[in-house]
Design brief:
Strand content: 15-25%
Order of helices and strands: HEEHEEHEHEEEEEH
CATH class: Alpha Beta
Radius of gyration: 19 Å
CATH architecture: 3-Layer(aba) Sandwich
Helix content: 10-25%
Largest sheet: 10 strands, mixed
Structural class: alpha/beta
Strand order of the largest sheet: 1-3-2-4-5-10-9-8-6-7
Shape: globular
Length: 342
């Protein structure tokens, strides 16, 4: 056992012994698994990594995992930002996502983190996965997934990274873009997804004829870096309802891509494929069209693009009442086991 692992285990044991009622329990799972049923994804493993303070990835990724498992056969594991003292889901805890070792057996990583400062022990699992060139599906704030101090081993993954060859970190090198700015007015102008010219024949957008979400369009640099192909453009909508009109003016001329694919290869690593969307809040997943796009993306990432249905099943699994995006808006007191498949 490594020193970091033994220290973490000792701290956990001490917390268990001293824990008051409602604190971490010995039998608390720190992540959730959804066994795949029948479907084209049977035998494929998807690890979904949540952990952002604003867009409720702790709600969105369990729902996506349930859809992938129940309707398409993928075995899914969802990881969370966890308060180590209580075992509860705590998006504001930015330095602890237990279970990342599951990436060793993963066929696809879906990531929706925001400025995480994970220690070397946890980051090494991300780095090993990426440097092996394995497939990545990034949602919303994954463009700025990490913010790690310069003194640390994996600082190169930071969204503001300046290390030569790693400028822009994980977001820029793997997904194709890092954090720049809001393009639409945050909380005032929502997003209508428009299939990009030339992408209509892509299996990734098959059946995705109605994409809308209340989150705003992010700014990306055009053209997209590397071997990237825009799939969906983000039409800035003048209000926060799907029936609102497109915003007049320069913001929609040209429209920013909000979903694309690219080939990636980090320095010293193998080549891989990545799908990115700057949509993906829990409220965005109320859109069937966006859910279907994410399902299609996971098929593509797993090398199953020839199995993407004409209209992949994207029905919600169980009750889904996503909370509005915003800081400190997460549901308090929830544990990974509370997101289990019903």
């Amino acid at each position: 056992m490594r020193h970091g692992q033994s220290l973490r285990a000792a701290v956990l044991a001490a917390l268990l012994l001293a824990a008051p009622a409602g604190a971490l329990r010995a039998d608390d799972p720190l992540w959730v698994n959804y066994a795949g049923g029948e479907g084209p994804g049977k035998g494929k493993r998807v690890v979904l990594v949540s952990g952002d303070e604003e867009y409720r990835s702790e709600e969105a990724l369990p729902q996506l995992g349930k859809i992938l498992a129940r309707h398409h056969g993928f075995d899914c594991t969802v990881l969370f930002a966890i308060d180590p003292a209580t075992g509860q889901i705590a998006p504001n805890v930015n330095d602890n996502i237990p279970g990342l070792e599951a990436l060793k057996r993963a066929d696809v990583m879906v990531i929706a983190t925001r400025w995480r400062n994970l220690d070397d022990e946890q980051m090494k699992h991300i780095a090993e996965y990426v440097e092996a060139g394995k497939p990545v599906v990034g949602l919303r704030t994954a463009t700025h997934a990490f913010r790690i101090p310069k003194s640390r081993a994996y600082a190169r993954y930071s969204s503001d990274g300046k290390e030569k060859g790693w400028e822009g970190g994980f977001g820029r090198l793997v997904l194709g873009e890092t954090w720049i700015s809001h393009h639409g007015r945050h909380g005032k102008e929502s997003t209508r997804g428009v299939i990009a010219l030339g992408a209509q024949g892509s299996p990734l957008v098959r059946g995705c004829d109605d994409i809308w979400g209340p989150t705003d369009v992010y700014t990306v640099r055009l053209p997209l870096s590397g071997e990237a192909s825009a799939l969906v453009l983000g039409q800035v909508v003048e209000g926060m309802e799907p029936s609102d009109k497109p915003l007049a003016g320069k913001k929609n001329d040209p429209m920013m891509p909000v979903a694309w694919t690219r080939s990636y290869q980090v320095p010293g690593g193998k080549a891989g494929r990545a799908f990115t969307t700057t949509m993906g809040s829990s409220t965005d997943l109320a859109s069937e069209g966006l859910r279907r796009l994410l399902v299609n993306a996971c098929y593509w990432a797993a090398g199953l693009e020839d199995r993407i249905p004409e209209r992949a099943r994207a029905d919600l699994v169980g009750e889904y009442r996503p909370r509005a995006f915003g800081f400190n808006g997460f549901e308090k007191g929830r544990r990974p086991a509370d997101t289990a498949m019903k």
